[in-house]
Amino acid sequence: MADGDMQGEGVGYWDLDRLVTDLAAARSRWRQEQQHHAEYGAEGFPSRANLVKITGALCGALFPLRLGPSFVRLHNEDAYVAETLQTVLSRLYGQIRLELIYAMKDDPIAAVDAAAARIIGEFAHSLPALRTLLDSDVEAAFLGDPAARSVDEVLICYPSMLAIIHHRLAHRLYELGAPLVARIISEIAHSHTGIDIHPGARIGHGFFIDHGTGVVIGETAIVGDRVRLYQGVTLGARSFPSDEKGALEKAQPRHPIIEDDVVIYAGATVLGRIIIGSRSVIGGNVWLTESVPADSNVRQAKARHEVTSRVEVSAPHRVHALLESTDGIGENI
């Protein structure tokens, strides 16, 4: 049977008019219940797909010879940066404007345009300082990882650098008043790297995440200078305060403060508004909910254990075969 015949017969399996009517009714109920949120869709919505392209272009403008297109060379990098920024900043302005139409729904459109212009202008002029800050992150990764053979390798290969670049961009937009666009940018990096950094988190210079997968840094976390984290580290909240109606209070300080030169090893969980003092070392798999002073060394308590040979316990004949082998290699094992 032809595809057209199948499609024609399939129409009888559902009542399209009823589906459209019922979906419209469901949307109407939702909008009435959520009127205090308005709805982005009334004027448009910041696009994740567009922001993927925008952040990719911003990465290229910040590091043209390494993260830009292959045709960029020393002789044409300034021209490439100029052309890229002219286009990408205009597109980013459009995404910010869509967010502000919702956030400033009671203001005239001229005020929305002015606010979006202010944000994109200040963001644009922040880019040289962001590049310098990111240089310190690249250098920290190179100096902190014995496997790194060059700063170029760090920039091109390390997923943590992708996450940090996105965070630096997102955090600046968050500060300037575009938190939704900032959150989308941070989630783009999260989906690519497995590193989840809320754009509200404040992170100092020389930041390095080794390996990175599974790292979580919450909205109100404050991270000092020259801090190093390993995979699976969580800087999270211990509790979530609520108001008299039971709704969660937003943006309350609830995540840790990590002071300068702290190292936190793989799998450690640091929860609540506690302070980890400068130059402290937090060992792997530690669960920490209390502040520690500067120069602390926090380790997981050692469990008592006994080391035995699995081979000797489960297959003693294999041990004998090894001992009796003439060449000492034990080919029969």
**Uncertain runs:** 1-8, 328-333
Biggest pleated-sheet summary: 5 strands, parallel
What shape does the CA trace take?
globular
Report the portion of residues in β strands: 5-15%
CATH architecture of the largest domain: Orthogonal Bundle
- The overall average pLDDT, rounded, is 87
Strands across the major sheet, in which order? 1-4-7-10-13
- How many separate structural domains? 3
Secondary structure class reads alpha/beta
State Rg: 27 Å
CATH topology of the largest domain: serine acetyltransferase, domain 1
Helix segment tally: 11
- Which H/E pattern describes the elements? HHHHHHHHHEEEEEEEEEEEEEEHH
In whole angstroms, the N-to-C terminal distance is 61 Å
Can you give the helix content as a percent range? 40-55%
What CATH first level of the largest domain would be assigned?
A: Mainly Alpha
Structural topology:
Layout: H1 3-10, H2 16-33, H3 48-62, H4 64-67, H5 77-103, H6 109-144, H7 151-157, H8 159-176, H9 179-193, E1 196-197, E2 202-203, E3 208-210, E4 216-217, E5 222-223, E6 228-230, E7 234-236, E8 257-258, E9 263-264, E10 269-271, E11 275-276, E12 281-282, E13 287-288, E14 297-298, H10 310-314, H11 316-324
Parallel strand pairs: 1-4, 2-5, 3-6, 4-7, 5-8, 6-9, 7-10, 8-11, 9-12, 10-13, 12-14
Helix pairs in contact: 3-5, 3-9, 5-6, 6-8, 8-9
